[in-house]
Specification:
The chain is α/β, with parallel strands linked by helices and about 300 residues long. It is built from twelve helices and eight strands. Bound molecules: guanosine-5'-triphosphate and magnesium ion. Guanosine-5'-triphosphate binds next to helix 6.
């Protein structure tokens, strides 16, 4: 199944919500005028695209309608797809070219960090990469157990310490082990933390510095995992985490279970950090590289769809 179909399936709830709001407006489309623009803006906000994104998108549509004929619903849909996709950060995969590459995975509690790591590890292992998982969530013993299960499933190595150990020490050891064993990619699991707890954010910063010091020439990715069901709160999470460890990408999970998929557009357009992957289920294959054009196409109702 391609990205479009899988997203469309995963996004059933989102598509329903967006179609309900945007679809009604588009179904009643006659011409691009101020009434339509206003209704579209409102519908986009309802679909969780965010007020700033909605307002910018509508401005662009107004401009475009001056230069180009937008007379059918399909032309309106194409214009909206172009505009929304154009507002998002360009698609880019993870850079793991300088080995051992390090992918640090951070986020608040329960968003899907460990699951995402399991999925990523499996996908790299399937490409023939040797993967090391660092169990730097030492907050609960169960966290390392959960990661160990994923390591087995994915065919990855793992370094873990006891409960309560210093997460930065786990990272340090995992780097040493990865070097010794010739691993290609190290993926670091961290404990969920509230973005407004300063001591926990400092701990992340310490991990970040250990990686920079031990592997100055390696490719680095710092992924913030966001739960799509949290809606607009995701934006403030991203801002805080970005201060502790410079984010290179976002993974948006649980898109399969939410009506708030429009948040992807708000995040990608507003944060200056690209969405790199989306999670569309709990299974090992339910992680997809993000494709912005296909995503908005899946989001916007097609003529005769409703
Ligand atoms: N439906 C759905 N569930 C997901 C997805 N990703 C993760 N989950 C589920 O979300 C729950 C939490 O996932 P974890 O990976 O343990 O989350 P975490 O961020 O590591 O949690 P903490 O370590 O406690 O902060 C689990 O039940 C996962 O199966 C997804 O894309 N879709
Ligand atoms: Mg976890």
């Amino acid at each position: 199944m391609g990205f479009f179909d899988k997203i469309k399936q995963g996004l059933k709830k989102t598509t329903a919500a967006v179609s309900e709001s945007l679809g009604d407006v588009m179904a009643a489309f006659v011409k691009v005028d101020e009434d339509l623009l206003e209704e579209l803006e409102e519908a986009m906000i309802l679909a969780d695209l965010g007020a700033a994104t909605a307002s910018k998108a509508v401005d662009q549509l107004r401009d475009r309608a001056k230069h180009e004929r937008i007379e059918t619903r399909e032309e309106l849909r194409t214009a909206l797809c172009d505009i929304l996709a154009g507002m998002m950060q360009e698609d880019s995969g993870l850079d793991v070219s300088s080995e051992p590459a390090v992918i640090l995975v951070i986020g608040v509690n329960g968003v899907g960090k460990t699951t995402t790591i399991g999925k990523l590890a499996a996908s790299y292992a399937a490409q023939g990469k040797r993967v090391m998982l660092a169990a730097a969530d030492t907050f609960r013993a169960a966290a390392a157990d959960q990661l160990t299960i994923w390591a087995k499933r994915a065919g990855a190595d793992i370094v873990r310490h006891g409960e309560g150990a210093d997460p930065a020490a786990v990272v340090f050891d995992s780097i040493a082990a990865a070097k010794a064993r010739g691993c290609d990619i190290i993926i670091v699991d961290t404990a969920g933390r509230l973005h407004n707890k300063a001591n926990l954010m400092n701990e992340l910063n310490k991990i970040d510095r250990v990686i920079a010091r031990e592997l100055p020439d390696s490719s680095r990715e710092t992924l913030l995992v966001l739960d799509a069901t949290t809606g607009q709160n995701a934006v403030s999470q991203a801002e805080q985490f970005n201060k502790a460890a410079k984010l290179t990408g976002i993974v948006l999970t649980k898109l399969d279970g939410t009506a708030k998929g429009g948040i992807v557009v708000a995040i990608s357009a507003g944060l200056g950090v690209p969405v790199k992957y989306v999670g569309v289920g709990e299974g090992i294959d339910d992680l997809m590289p993000f494709e912005r054009r296909a995503f908005v196409e899946a989001l916007l109702p097609v003529e005769g769809d409703e």
